Amino acid sequence: MSQAIYPVRPEDAARAHVDAAAYERLYAEAAQDPDGFWRRQAERLDWTTPPTQIGDWSFDEADFHIKWFADGALNVSANCLDRHLATRGDDTAIIWEGDDPADGRRISYRELHADVCRLANALKAKGVAKGDRVTIYLPMIPEAAVAMLACTRIGAVHSIVFGGFSPDALANRIQDCDSRLLITADEGRRGGKRVPLKANVDAALAHCTSVDTVLVVRHTGGEVTMQPGRDTDYAEAIAAAAPDCPAEPMGAEDPLFILYTSGSTGKPKGVLHTTGGYLLWAAYTHETVFDYRPGEVFWCTADVGWVTGHSYTVYGPLANGGTTLMFEGVPNWPDHGRFWDVIDKHKVDIFYTAPTALRALMREGDDWVTRSSRKSLRLLGSVGEPINPEAWEWYHRVVGEGKLPIVDTWWQTETGGIMISPLPGATDLKPGSASKPFFGVLPQVVDAEGVVLEGATEGNLVLAASWPGQMRTVWNDHDRFFQTYFTTYKGKYFTGDGVRRDADGYYWITGRVDDVINVSGHRMGTAEVESALVAHAKVAEAAVVGMPHDVKGQGIYAYVTLNAGVEGDEALRKELVQWVRREIGPIASPDAIQFAPGLPKTRSGKIMRRILRKIAEGEVGALGDTSTLADPAVVDHLVANRVS
Ligand code: PRX
């Protein structure tokens, strides 16, 4: 743990929406009078019916429910577009930077409004109605934001599937929420390579019957097969549509979007966010944590396929009338200076990225960074995984030239937006600590039995109260929602993360304590990778754990037991890696595969993951008690054949 402290700079405190005194006051207000606090905050949105009911929730089984602003009505696209037209219709809403540095566009609020209305009308013409689900499988191009906002305009529920997911993963996500319509592109571009999105869609739809319409954006111009009756050219569909579409007033608790995320069990969960509370949380946290003011260029590098892209590439910045930068490419192409070149090119004020990208760039040397000016930058942000102090210090010293504050923001798909983070004008920074809770967030540290620990301590992170941006359910499985988050510690939301709190009340997230691993800031369920592996004809059993990885944070370590008579060799290892990539997507590629004749199990047949984790971490001297194993000799074999 780093001992360094970087105090708030006077210039940041002076310009900030929230300085240290305001933080204390607002935090206390939100904790003591949540209804009064959130009633006032709700005024930052345009409501067609202002809410009179504010928080209405209980985490107890007998009365389990979560509602915010339930009698209010509003429309998300009207809040992100229409209300800005009179004052800043000609301001840039989206700066698009293509994978190829020669590709780019700037889209004003007025243009974005017209595009969204056209697509909304086109969706209606295709029979999409309020409440219908629309799957979006697009690269990072402006049409992704247009598609999201067009759905919200008519009350359709979007489900974005990251373009890196395989046809099977896409098919599962389409089927789970029963989407009728899908929006995709011919191909995506990443690092000079093409991603065959439409071909993946064709493969996925071979298993899905619910989708009757596919809109295809011509992005690269690559060859695709269009299935008559089902597939329509996106440009044709919107050319025929009017640039004006009334915004449907939605109940604050009407579904806004579904986003699938990995959990401890095999099947990804459809996290459901609703309209009022989510938008308020995205907008308010975006303004406060980044101390954002319209006119500043905000760049969040996350793909819209992840929650960070939802809340901080699209909804937060646009709700605040801001300018958001959407980047199609990758940090290391055409070279390792791409991020910094883009910052100079578009005069980016605020840059928000993931530790994994920083670690990868850090290895390439400082010259890539220092050859750029970066003088437009005012604030840096980090998200997705714990940032190790070395990466933090590099980000601060080299990228920020020792001057710029860094907000290390802890949150989850489930939380809708940032929950624990420094505020640049209020919080002294400690490298590696997400620091203090946002307004309305009541973190507690509990031990395994749920006893609340006070003061400087370490344990599991729970949240004792609801907040407006909280997910409302798991799509189609409300019981799973309750079981997953509210039963481990009764009456509290369990985050799945471990945490340490220091004597100054700063929170230090230590990582997942469940069977979820965080690979390059992306959540992967170990059970998902296991089920992909056992689906291979030669595999009898598999157990997957996380292992430390210099760049990715965590890597995927798979123990695989092969069917009798099958020999585990290098060729099979490669085949299994390819298999998992095909089943789930490249982000799930195992980093290490160890062939294991047996796995350590208790006498009742339960795999002892604790031991497998230790071996993968290389801590073979600290395996703990192995006496309860059915066959302790298994462990010796695993240790002797560890893949390093
Ligand atoms: O373990 C925490 C880690 O990422 C998990 C949430 O992943 P996901 O739902 O994909 O959302 C990622 C983007 C918000 C958390 O349970 N995590 C996220 N941010 C941080 C973090 N761990 C430490 N520090 C962070 N700033």
UniProtKB/TrEMBL annotation:
<keyword id="KW-0007">Acetylation</keyword>
<dbReference type="GO" id="GO:0005829">
    <property type="term" value="C:cytosol"/>
</dbReference>
<feature type="binding site">
    <location>
        <position position="534"/>
    </location>
    <ligand>
        <name>Mg(2+)</name>
    </ligand>
</feature>
<dbReference type="InterPro" id="IPR011904">
    <property type="entry name" value="Ac_CoA_lig"/>
</dbReference>
<comment type="function">
    <text>Catalyzes the conversion of acetate into acetyl-CoA (AcCoA), an essential intermediate at the junction of anabolic and catabolic pathways. AcsA undergoes a two-step reaction. In the first half reaction, AcsA combines acetate with ATP to form acetyl-adenylate (AcAMP) intermediate. In the second half reaction, it can then transfer the acetyl group from AcAMP to the sulfhydryl group of CoA, forming the product AcCoA.</text>
</comment>
<dbReference type="InterPro" id="IPR042099">
    <property type="entry name" value="ANL_N_sf"/>
</dbReference>
<keyword id="KW-0547">Nucleotide-binding</keyword>
<feature type="binding site">
    <location>
        <position position="523"/>
    </location>
    <ligand>
        <name>ATP</name>
    </ligand>
</feature>
<keyword id="KW-0479">Metal-binding</keyword>
<dbReference type="InterPro" id="IPR032387">
    <property type="entry name" value="ACAS_N"/>
</dbReference>
<dbReference type="GO" id="GO:0019427">
    <property type="term" value="P:acetyl-CoA biosynthetic process from acetate"/>
</dbReference>
<keyword id="KW-0436">Ligase</keyword>
<dbReference type="Pfam" id="PF16177">
    <property type="entry name" value="ACAS_N"/>
</dbReference>
<dbReference type="InterPro" id="IPR045851">
    <property type="entry name" value="AMP-bd_C_sf"/>
</dbReference>
<feature type="binding site">
    <location>
        <begin position="384"/>
        <end position="386"/>
    </location>
    <ligand>
        <name>ATP</name>
    </ligand>
</feature>
<dbReference type="Pfam" id="PF00501">
    <property type="entry name" value="AMP-binding"/>
</dbReference>
<comment type="similarity">
    <text>Belongs to the ATP-dependent AMP-binding enzyme family.</text>
</comment>
<feature type="binding site">
    <location>
        <position position="539"/>
    </location>
    <ligand>
        <name>Mg(2+)</name>
    </ligand>
</feature>
<feature type="domain" description="AMP-binding enzyme C-terminal">
    <location>
        <begin position="528"/>
        <end position="606"/>
    </location>
</feature>
<feature type="domain" description="Acetyl-coenzyme A synthetase N-terminal">
    <location>
        <begin position="23"/>
        <end position="80"/>
    </location>
</feature>
<keyword id="KW-0460">Magnesium</keyword>
<feature type="binding site">
    <location>
        <position position="332"/>
    </location>
    <ligand>
        <name>CoA</name>
    </ligand>
</feature>
<feature type="binding site">
    <location>
        <position position="520"/>
    </location>
    <ligand>
        <name>CoA</name>
    </ligand>
</feature>
<dbReference type="GO" id="GO:0046872">
    <property type="term" value="F:metal ion binding"/>
</dbReference>
<dbReference type="GO" id="GO:0003987">
    <property type="term" value="F:acetate-CoA ligase activity"/>
</dbReference>
<dbReference type="InterPro" id="IPR000873">
    <property type="entry name" value="AMP-dep_synth/lig_dom"/>
</dbReference>
<protein>
    <recommendedName>
        <fullName>Acetyl-coenzyme A synthetase</fullName>
        <ecNumber>6.2.1.1</ecNumber>
    </recommendedName>
</protein>
<feature type="binding site">
    <location>
        <begin position="190"/>
        <end position="193"/>
    </location>
    <ligand>
        <name>CoA</name>
    </ligand>
</feature>
<feature type="binding site">
    <location>
        <position position="497"/>
    </location>
    <ligand>
        <name>ATP</name>
    </ligand>
</feature>
<dbReference type="InterPro" id="IPR025110">
    <property type="entry name" value="AMP-bd_C"/>
</dbReference>
<feature type="binding site">
    <location>
        <position position="581"/>
    </location>
    <ligand>
        <name>CoA</name>
    </ligand>
</feature>
<feature type="domain" description="AMP-dependent synthetase/ligase">
    <location>
        <begin position="82"/>
        <end position="465"/>
    </location>
</feature>
<feature type="modified residue" description="N6-acetyllysine">
    <location>
        <position position="606"/>
    </location>
</feature>
<feature type="binding site">
    <location>
        <position position="512"/>
    </location>
    <ligand>
        <name>ATP</name>
    </ligand>
</feature>
<dbReference type="GO" id="GO:0016208">
    <property type="term" value="F:AMP binding"/>
</dbReference>
<keyword id="KW-0067">ATP-binding</keyword>
<feature type="binding site">
    <location>
        <begin position="408"/>
        <end position="413"/>
    </location>
    <ligand>
        <name>ATP</name>
    </ligand>
</feature>
<dbReference type="Pfam" id="PF13193">
    <property type="entry name" value="AMP-binding_C"/>
</dbReference>
<dbReference type="GO" id="GO:0005524">
    <property type="term" value="F:ATP binding"/>
</dbReference>
<dbReference type="InterPro" id="IPR020845">
    <property type="entry name" value="AMP-binding_CS"/>
</dbReference>
<feature type="binding site">
    <location>
        <position position="536"/>
    </location>
    <ligand>
        <name>Mg(2+)</name>
    </ligand>
</feature>
<feature type="binding site">
    <location>
        <position position="308"/>
    </location>
    <ligand>
        <name>CoA</name>
    </ligand>
</feature>
